[in-house]
Write a structure and sequence with these properties.
It is a single chain. By secondary structure, the protein is mostly helical. The chain has one domain (2-114). The protein contains five helices and no strands. It has helices at residues 2-21, 29-37, 44-69, 71-95, 104-114. Helix 1 runs antiparallel to helix 3 and helix 3 (44-69) packs antiparallel against helix 4. It starts with a helix and ends with a helix.
């Protein structure tokens, strides 16, 4: 546990960078949705929702990087980002099991570890 506490800054920083990297969804929503879940975006509203999801992912990544260097906000950042990841994991496991065979499956595993 001591090693984890000493390393939290770097864990949060690396996790934040990795999380920000998935914010490309904001700029290429159709391609990223097809890549991650194997389904096309079927309408313009879907593109808006997917782009919003990408923006939120990017904000979570920025929060993690900010929290890495600002100890007073770390706990709140970790709670918020962990809750977001946990909700996504639960939704995919309960409503979208067919997506586990696509790239969403490994993403769920990675998010579970980072959560």
């Amino acid at each position: 546990m001591i090693v984890f506490q000493r390393s939290i800054k770097w864990i949060m920083l690396i996790s934040g960078i990795l999380t920000c990297a998935t914010a490309y969804v904001l700029f290429a929503p159709a391609a990223s949705l097809q890549s991650a879940f194997g389904v096309p975006v079927s309408n313009p509203m879907g593109l808006i929702v997917v782009r919003h999801w990408g923006a939120l992912i990017g904000l979570f990544g920025l929060m993690l990087m900010y929290g890495a260097f600002n100890a007073p906000v770390r706990r709140m950042v970790l709670l918020a980002t962990s809750a977001g990841k946990a909700i996504f994991i639960l939704l995919v496991l309960s409503e979208g099991q067919q997506f586990l065979r696509s790239q969403a499956g490994p993403g769920i595993v990675i998010d579970s570890v980072r959560c």
